[in-house]
Amino acid sequence: MTTTVSAASPRPVDVLRADRRRTAMTNIAVVAGLLAAFSIWAIWSGGLSLYLQRVLDGTRNGVLYGMVALALVIVFKATKVINFAQGAMAMFGTFVAATLITSWNLPVALAVLIAMALSAAAGAGIERAVIRPFDPDNHLGIVIVTLSLYMAINATAALVWGNDPRGFPSLFPAGGDNYLALGDIRLYYTTLGSWATIALVVVALHLMLARTRMGLAFRAVANSVENARLIGVDVGRTVQQSWAIAAAVGTLAGCLLAPMTNLDPVFMDKVLVYSFAAATLGGLDSISGSVLGGVIVGLTIALLTGYLPGLGGEFGIALAFFVIIAVLQFRPAGLLGRKSQERV
Amino acid sequence: MRGTVWRKNVTAGAVALLAALSVTACSHEESRQQAEAARCGAAAEPEGESTITVNDGSIPEPNEDAAQWGLADDCTYKGPGGFSIDLTKCPDDWDINAGITEEEIRLFSSMPYAGNLAAYGAIGDGIAAYFQHVNDNGGIYGRKIVYDIKDDQLQPDVTRQNTDDAIQSGNYAAGYAILGSSGNLAIQELTNAECMPQVASAAANDALNDPENFPWTTSFGLNYYNETAIWEKWLEENFPDGATVAVLASSNAQGEAYINGFTAAIEGTNINIVATETNEVTATNLDNQVTSAAARGADVAIIAQAGTLCTAGFAAIERSAWDPTVIAANSCAQIDTVFAPLQQQGLTGNGTHVVRYYYGPYDNDNPHTEFTRLYERVVSEQGLDPTNAQIANGFWWGWYATQILLDAGQMKGGLNRANINVAAHSYDSHYPLELDGVRGKVSGVEDAYPFESGQIFVYENATPERTGTFRAAGPLIDNEGVLKNWSSIQASS
Amino acid sequence: MARITLTEGSRQHRALQMGIAAIGALVVLTLPLLTDEVGAIETFTQIACYAVAILGLGLLTGYTGQISIGMSAFVGLGAYTTIILVVDHGWPYLATIPVGIVLCLIAGALVGIPALRIRGLYLVTVTLAVAALFPVLVHRFSDLTGGTDGKFAQDMEVPTWTPVDPYVRAGVPRLHYYIIVLIAALAFLVAWNVVRSRVGRAMLAVRDSELSASANGVPVARVKVFAFALSAAYGGLAGSLLVIQAPVVSETRFDLFLSVFLLVGLIVGGSGTIIGAIPGAIAFVALRTYIADWTEALGLLGARAESGQIVGVISGLLLLLFVFLLPGGLVDGLGTLRRRFLVVIPRPPAGWQQYIPASGAPAIAHDHPVTERPTGSRPPVPPPADAPLVSARVPGTTAPLQRTSHEKG
Fold first, then answer.
1. Among B371, B432, C203, C333, whose CB has the most other CB atoms within 10 angstroms?
2. Do B397 and B478 share a domain, yes or no?
3. What angle (nearest 5°) sits at the alpha carbon of residue B386, between those of residues B382 and B388?
4. Is C163 part of any domain?
C-alpha cells in the first residue's frame, strides 16, 4: 500500500495504523453487538437489576483474569514468549506480600509494593538466567524452561508456606457496608478499587510505551528484534525489563485476587486457563486487549451460565477452551492485536 | 525256611512303610495345624489390663463388653450386631498376626502428600501425633503403634499399588485412614479378598460402610444422609409453613451426595428446592451462583462446599442484598480456616447454621480447654501446627484407632488382625472434643455408620476484628442406628 | 582409550548390533523373573506403558516439532474407553485396545486440525487447554466415567498355559508384564518403521523447516494431522495398557501434571529418538513414584505432609539441567560417551560415485557432521536422531545444484 502525498492532503496518513484501528473497531463492534443482543433478551426475560448484578459479577471476575493476562501479554509483546510460569510467579509474590503483612506487620499497601519490587527483581533474574540463553525461535526449549519453573515454583511455595489456605487483606476498605448503592445493586469499594488499579496500570503502561525511552526500546524490540539490535537498542536489557514489569504486574494481580479466593499454592492455577483465554481473545500483543479480553470472558461466563439453564459450573472452562481454539484458528490476532502474526 | 524269611521281609517292609506313612501323615497334620493356627489364630489369650499410664482422659479405655466378642469357634470371629467373619475365606498364606509383635503394632495408610489435595495429607500427621502420645504413655498393651504413610497423590492406581505392597510385605496388621473415595473404592475388593482390615477410611462415600458385602472395610465421619436429615428436621421446626431452598453445591461426589441426601430427606415435606447451582471445584468464587440463587429469592441457602469455597459462598451471600437463612455443610464448620479469612474481607459470616458433632480445639464454645492444651502440647512438640484443622481431625482419628486396638486386645483370641476387624465394627466411644451426647458407635451389620447424631449451631458475634462463637440453635438429634448400612440405604431408596 | 572404528554395515557392526539387541531382549524378558516382589514387577510394567506414551509424544514433538502438553487427555481417553467397555459391557481387555486406538486417532486428528494454522507457543496453549479440559469432561459425564469416585474393574485374566506360573503371588503381574511388553514392543516396531519411512522423513522435514518442506512438495497439513493422530493413538494405547496394569481410573490419574511429566520424560530420555522413550519412562516412574518415598526415608524435610512436594522441585530442576546441559537427553549423552570408544563410519548411499566430479572429490568426512553440536552459549534445538541412514544432509539431495554448476562451469 502506498501513500500518495498530494497538495490536497497536507499530512501523510499512517495507513497501517488507521487500518489497525479500523479492524479493532470492527472487532469490538461485532462483540459488542452480540453482547447487546443477548443483553436485550436477558433484560427482557429477567429484569434490569438482575442483569446489572450479573454484569457486575462477570466484570469483576473478568477484570482479574485480564490482569493476569496483562502480565502474560507484557512478556509476549516483547519476546513472543508465553510464560507458562506467570501464574506461579504471581502466586509466589503474593505469598511474599502475605508474609510481610503477617510476620513484619507492614501496612498492606506497603507490603504489596515491596512484594512487587521483589518480584520485579526475581523476574529480571529469571530472564537473565534461564531464558536469555535460548534462541527465541527455540520454542521447545522455552516451553520446557517455563514449565519447569512452573513446577519448581509451585512446589517450593507449598514447601515453604504449606497447603493450608489463608486469608489476604484487601487493599481497599472492605466490609459489609462499604459499598455504593445503585438502586438494587451494590458496588463494593473493593471492586471499584480493583477496577481503578487496573485502569491505572493500563494507562501507566501505555504512557510508558509512548513517552519513555524504555517504552521506545520496548516497542522497537516488539516490532523486530533484529532491527532493534541494528539501531543500537540493548535487546537483552529491554527484555529483562519486560519480565520485571510483568512479574510486578502479576504479583499485583495476585494481591487483588487473593482477598476474594484465599491464598494457597494453587489459587492462581484456577485462573490460568481463563487468563490464557483472555490474552488470546484480546490479542496476545495488546495491553488493553488483555483486560478487554478478560472482561469479555468473565461477562460471557456470568451471563451465559446465569441465563441459560443447564449450563453448570464446568461451562466456564469449556468456554475458555473454546475461545482459545476459535480465536487462534480464525482470528489469531485477537480483538486488538496486530494482524502481522506469522501466517507462513 | 525261605518262605518264612520272605514273609518276614514283607512284614518288616510293610511295617516300615506304615511307620513312614504315619510319620509323614503326622507331619502333614502338624503343618496343617500350624497353617490353620497362623490363619485362624490359635487360642491366644486376651491381653490383661491396659498398659496406659495416664489417667487424664486423653487416651481411651478398652470397652468392657469387648471380652464377649472375638473368636467364636474354629475359624469364625463374631462381634455385636450380627457381625461375623469366616477366616477360611482368607488366603491360604494369611497370617493372623502379621504386623503385630511383642513390641509393635504396624499400621499403614496411603494419602496425598503432593499435588492439589496435599492439604488433607495433614490428617496423617495428626494421627501420627496422637499415636506418639499413646506410645509415650504405655502403648497398646506395651506395644508401640507404628504408622507408615505412603504418598499416592490421590491417584487410585497408586493407592492400589501401595495397598498391594503393604499386603504383600506381611508387615502390617491393618490399613488405617486411607484417604480418598476413589482410592478406597478401588481397593475394597482387594482388601476384602486378602482379609486386610481397611479401617476408618477417610472418604466421602457412604458406600464404604457395607459390612454385609465388604466386612473388612469401614469408614469414618458423619454420614451425608444423616447430616441432611438433621437439616430437614431443623427446617421443619423453624419453618413450619414451609420454605424455599437454594442449594449451592460443588460438582463433585461430596456435592452430589448432599444434593441426593437432601432431596431424599425433604420428600413429602413442605420444603422445596427452587434452585440448584453447581460450580467446579476450582472455581475462584461463587458470585455467579449466588446471583442466580438470589434471583429466586429463596428463604434458605444451603452451601454444600468444602474449604475455600465455603468462605466464597458466605462472602458472596453476605455481600448481596439477599438475606437467606444459611445452612452450611459440616466441612465448613471450621472457624480458623473458613470463617476467619472472611474478616480480611471485612465480613463476618454471622448467621451461618451448621451441623456440628465435635468441637475444633480453638472454637470459643469448646469447654474442654484442658484437652485442648494437651493437644497443643503434643502436636507442637512434634513440630506441627496445632491451628491446622486437619491435624486436629487426625488427632480425633487417632483416638478411635487406639480404642479399636485396645478393644481388640480384650477379645477372645487376643490381639490379632481378625479382632482388630471385629473391634472396627463394635466400638462405642466418646472423644473428649465431641459434643456431649455424641458417641462414635458402630455395631456390626445393624449400625455401620459411626456418627449419626449432630446439632445445629449458629455462628454469631463475629466482627471484622475477631472471630465469633457457635451457639446451639437446636437440640442434639440422635439418629444412631437409623440408617443401618449401605445395603439397607440402597434397598430403601 | 583407543577408539574402535567400525564401518556401518560391516560384519562387526552387525554383530555388535545383534549383540546389543540380544542383551536388551534378554534383560526385558527376564526382568520379572528376577524378583518376587509384586511392586517391582508392576513398576517395570508401568515403565513399559509410559514408554509407549512418551514414544507417542516423541513422534509428535521430537520428530514433527509440534509441541504438545495435551497428551494426558489421550492417555485418559484410551484408559477410560477400556475400563468403560470392560466394566459396563463386559468386553475382554485386549479387545478394547483397537477401539481406544481408533477413538484416539479421531480425537488426535481433530486436535491436529487447528494445529495447521496455529504454531509454536500458541499450539502449546491449545494443547494445555485440551489437557485441562479432560478432567472437566470426566466430571461432566460422571454417569459414564464414575466422576470423582473413579471406576475400577477386575484384573485381566491371564492364560494358564504359559511356563509362567499364574498361581504364585507374582504370577499374574508377571503375565501382565509380558503381555504389555509384547504390545509395547509392537508399538515400538511400528514407530521405528514410521520414522524410517517417507512419512517419517516428511515429519522431520516439517520439523526442521516447514517452508522448505512445503516448497519441496511435502504435504505439510497432512503430515501434521497424521502426526497428531498417530501420537494420540500411542497415548490411547498407553492408557489402555495402564488400565491392564492397574484396572482403576480416576481423573486425578490423567491431569495436566501427567502431560508435563511426560514431557519431562521425553526431554530426559531424548526427544528425537525412538529408544529414548525407555530411559525417559524410567525417569518418569522414578520421579513420580520413588522420589517422595526416598526423601521421606532419608528423613529430609522432616516427615511433614508437604515433603512430597520435593518431587516438583526436583523435576523442575532436573528439566532445567537437562535443557541446558544435555538437550538431546540421555540417549544423546550416552551416544557422546559411546563415541569416545567406538565410532561407526556411516555408509555412503548407493551409487554415490556418479556425483564425484572427474577431477576428484574430497573424501567424505569421517565423523558425521550432523551430530556435532555447534559451540556457543545457546543450547540448540535437540539434534535429530543419530540415524546414519536418514539425514537431511545426505549429499545426494544437493546434487542437482552441484551438477548444474559443474556443467556450467
1. C203
2. no
3. 120
4. yes
The residue among C338 and C404 whose pLDDT is bigger is C338
Residue C369 has pLDDT above 70, yes or no: no
CA angle, B490 then B198 then C88, to 5°:
45
Checking if the pLDDT of C399 tops 70, the result is: no
On whether any CB of chain B is under 8 Å from the CB of A158, the answer is yes
Instruction: Report the neighbours of A using a cutoff of 3 or more CB pairs below 8 angstroms.
Output: B, C
Asked if the structure places residue C393 within a domain, the reply is no
Q: Rounded to whole angstroms, how far apart are CA atoms A294 and A271?
A: 11
pLDDT tens-digit profile of B440-489?
Answer: 999 988 888 898 888 999 999 988 888 888 999 888 888 777 777 787 77
Pick the closest to residue A14 from A24, A26, A25, A5 (CA basis).
A5
Residue B167 has pLDDT above 60, yes or no: yes
B384 within 8 A of B128, measured Cβ to Cβ? no
Question: Cβ contact (<8 Å) for A318 and C136?
Answer: yes
Complex ipTM: 0.81
| Backbone conformation region of residue B437, classed left if phi is above 0, alpha if psi is from -120 to 50, else beta | left
Residue B278 contacts C where some CB pair is shorter than 8 Å: no
- Which residues from B are below 8 Å from A173, CB to CB? 346
Q: Is residue C369 part of a domain?
A: no
Can you read off the three cell numbers belonging to residue B294?
438470589
pLDDT at C366: 47
CA distance C121 to A342: 12
Q: For residue C199, give Cα distances in angstroms to C59, C116, C209, C408.
A: 11, 17, 15, 35
Mean pLDDT of chain C: 81
Residue C299 forms contact with B (CB below 8 Å): no
Q: Would you say residue A278 has pLDDT above 90?
A: yes
Q: Which amino acid is at C213?
A: A
Q: B43 falls in which pLDDT band (50, 70, 90)?
A: low
Report d(CA B50, CA B62) in Å as an integer.
Answer: 7
| Residues C107, C96: Cα–Cα separation, whole Å | 16
Considering the domain architecture, whether residues B242 and B189 belong to the same structural domain is answered as no
Q: Assign residue B327 the CATH number of its domain.
A: 3.40.50.2300
pLDDT at residue C295 tops 70: no
**B351 plus B437 within the same structural domain:** no
A340 at B interface, C-beta within 8 A: no
Q: Are residues B236 and B337 in the same domain?
A: yes
What tens digit of pLDDT does each residue of B358-378 get? 998 988 888 999 999 999 999
Q: DSSP states of C193-229 as a string?
A: HHHHSHHHHHHHHHHH-HHHHHHTT--HHHHHHHHHH
C103 lies in some domain: yes
The per-residue pLDDT for B117 is: 65
- pLDDT at C301 (0 to 100): 52
* Partner residue opposite C150 with nearest CB, options B185, B189, B256: B185
Determine the structural domain holding residue C77 and report its residue range. Answer: 33-304
Q: Which of B116, B132, B139 is nearest to B383 (CA)?
A: B132
Q: What is the reported pLDDT for B100?
A: 92
What's the domain range around B180? 64-222+368-441
Same domain, B77 and B153: yes
Question: Is the distance from CB of C81 to CB of C73 less than 8 angstroms?
Answer: no
Q: Pairing relation of β-strands A179-182 and A185-188?
A: antiparallel
- Chain C residue with Cα closest to B186: C152
Whether B2 shows a pLDDT value over 60: the answer reads: no
Query: A107: how many CB neighbours lie within 10 A of its CB?
Result: 12
In CATH, what is the architecture of A45-330? Orthogonal Bundle (1.10)
CATH number of C42's domain: 1.10.3470
When CB atoms are compared, the residue of A54, A164, A261 closest to B291 is A54
pTM to 2 decimal places: 0.82
Of the candidates C139, C248, C309, which has its C-beta nearest B160's C-beta?
C248
| Amino acid identity, position B54 | V
